[in-house]
What we know:
This protein is mainly β. It has three helices and 37 strands. The longest helix is centred in the N-terminal third of the chain and has 15 residues, at about 5-15. About 50% of the residues are buried.
Amino acid sequence: MPRFSTILAITQICVVAFAADWLTDGKNSQRTNWQEDEKTFTRVNAKDIKLLWKIKLDNEVREMHSLLVPLVADRVNTSSGPKQILIETGVSDNIFAIEAETGKVIWKKHFTSSYTPPPNPRHDILCPGGITATPVISPAGAPGKYTLYVASWDGSLHRLNVADGEDVAPPTKFMPPNGKPYGLNLFNGALYTHTSQGCGGNPNMVYTFDLASGKVGSWGPSGGGMWGRQGPAISSDGTMYTGTGDGNFKPEIGSYGNGIIGIKVNPQTKAAELVDYYGPSNAAWLWKRDLDMQVTPAIFNYKGRELMVAAGKECRVYLLETAAIGGDDHRTPLYRTPLICNEDVNFASAGIWGSLATWQNSTGARWVLTPFWGPQHSAIKAPVEYGEVQHGAIAAFKIEEKSGKLQLVPAWISRDMNRAEPPVVANGVVFAYGNGEDTEQAYPDVGLADTADRRIPGSTHATLYALDAESGKELWSSGNQIASWNHWSGISVANGRVYIGTFDGILYCFGIQK
């Protein structure tokens, strides 16, 4: 082989070996939000991040919902050669495939159905209609082939070829129409999601779909919707975990509100079955104060044990072990942190929302990161802090063993962010953002009024940050480059680019200029 051809072949192998995908919300089935495959971003070059492109997408907003979390598949075999493709979901039943290098739309899919909403249907911030579950991408057997799984507004499961948007199988019934499913998770040939807020008059349920048999499983907690924004996290044995919202925690009568549930698919019947659960010791008080356990957990290995971190609006992080998430009594975690925020017990504009992140550095230290809204609690301190926190921030913890027990030890608290959203960790850099959203739901003149016409005018703009993952030091900020804010969304990171979509339908790509 000529020397040039040899170099080219080696280069191509390296490109494939070091390519980074973001095929599902939270990066993986465990929802760690850790981009382990990232090699381009570093602590050194983060200061050089620039706006590479932005594009306005043709998607109608619904209430405060617009664009969902972008997904990234590298080296997709298309008719014009291998491309890195970005999949962006619009709430109004739209899917856009975008070339990551240029920001150009390759194809668009709009789902239509025979479903007709009833007269005067409920549409509000909690129940906007449309697509609410971030899709998931799976390799489809051959190199460069990928299948996108989408749950549309009418409850159908769609399977699309990422290369061209064509159906690879006919749409199949998955869930009732007009519900509110959350981020799809794919594990061992089955899809998992859950619903909340009783949207469309539907009960709050876990739904599973076995791709080989087409069988659907379902299970409901009889109290408390499940609204961790990234959907469920899945452990190594195939158990899906999610927090539950407001409701009574009384397992003896089948009620699991304000707790965490573990659901597993029966391998013979494909039914969804409850296999474990946890309820905080103050679950009854959480219910009375509307402090849901509504955060998507993150699952990881630590010194031969599979652990999980979870959280809720009260603003504590819980450390649990998947072997028995609440111990023998289902009420005892391995550890729970002191209150990080929400000193005023605010049910709407404070607490931990969305999801968590966890990563491990080169020395084996395990880190856990949480976003939070509102002021930092006066009783919590970290060795490294970056000024007063009033609107939100990222708090970082290390897992350490003290007196034979595992603990989450504060390491740093970031600079102030306007409603900090779930972070992503990539090659020693934490990407986080303040969403700029007006999160108030109650007002002195009218009381509870969680309406878009009140909240949209008070929303400002999102700001994206790059932080040193071990110190929390700010390395870069987007400043005022992002014109609008977002709700019900997130960021993804792959191959030297970070993506964020906003309420005005614009998708931004920031990164290192190649």
